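Hi, here's the filled form for the chain we discussed.

Project: internal
Contact: R.S.
Residues: 243
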Amino acid sequence: MRSYLLGILDERSAASIEERYFTDRGFFLFVQAAETVLIEDYLAGRLAPSITERFESRYLSVPDLHRRLNEVRERQVPARIVSGQTRYARLRLVAATLLVCLGGAAFWLYRDRMQFDSLPASRRAHPVLATISLSPGLLKDQAARSTELRALSAKGDVRLVLDLPGQATEIACFAQVSAALPDGTWKRVWSTPEPIWSTPSQGGQQLRFTLDASLLARGDYLVEVAGTDRRVQETYSFRISPM
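And the returned structure, exactly as it came back:
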């Protein structure tokens, strides 16, 4: 796994890992835990010189990896308890490995805990003012008539629940919300910075996420759901009407 994280794994093997990474939640957790231990070993100076050089060539130059390095660094505590933190990280790695081996039953126990949340903690504390449940395949005017929400004056969030009919297993997706402009074009008002995982629902899977209600002014909206390859898989529409 470290060969993959350091970018020295052959292309075919790396592609296989990436495909499983986005389709298998247990494996995703395993990779994240392995990466955390690798970064902590780097910060503690436990990597061999050649490995350190390879690590820095990736994690100091690739923006997403650099952010991940900073996240782990910010969680570091004073030196007197670093060893305890490292032991805890290694226990997480062992737990993640067991999760992969145990499969389905253990997987579902961690579903909600490990759900990606695209908003910062300060936003998560906001009250949910309304929930909009949407199904794909409706034309804009049809969706506007069947899924309409009056503008909200209070501060808080709106939860969107998107049906993914026929999808039997969990998948990672990106979501984007766009507002209709007078000239007929669309302007993006919100998108997920990271993939979010679907959850089981009647007849398939569903995506659930929240966004700040202040982003939704009066008008028509388009929601696009794309796979990890950024290709749009489903579209949804709704309308915000005057108060």
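Let me know if anything looks off before we file it.
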